[in-house]
Amino acid sequence: MTGWWVALAALIPSIGVGVLFWYVMRAVVNADRAERRALAQLDEQQRRAETPDGD
């Protein structure tokens, strides 16, 4: 059984880095999605402001 604990101890840092990478990438993707949504709303507001009848 000693071999299993050694193998598990060797994998824990890699798993931790993988989880950290996943969390950071999820945050980046969510931030990008929110920024794209905000830019789309801003573009829509600008288009509405440019039309004379407000449509």
Question: What does the model show?
Answer:
This protein has 55 residues and is an all-alpha fold. The protein has one domain (1-50). It is built from one helix and no strands. The chain has one helix at residues 2-50. The radius of gyration is 24 Å and the shape is rod-shaped. The mean pLDDT is 92.
Briefly say what this structure is.
By secondary structure, the chain is mostly helical. It is built from one helix and no strands.
CA(first)-CA(last) distance: 72 Å
Largest sheet: none
Count of individual domains: 1
Number of helices: 1
Number of strands: 0
CA-based shape? rod-shaped
Q: Name the beta content range.
A: under 5%
The low-pLDDT segments are: none
Specify the helix fraction band.
over 70%
Rg, rounded, reads 24 Å
Succession of helices and strands: H
The secondary-structure class comes to: mainly alpha
Mean pLDDT: 92
Layout of helices and strands:
Blueprint: H1 2-50
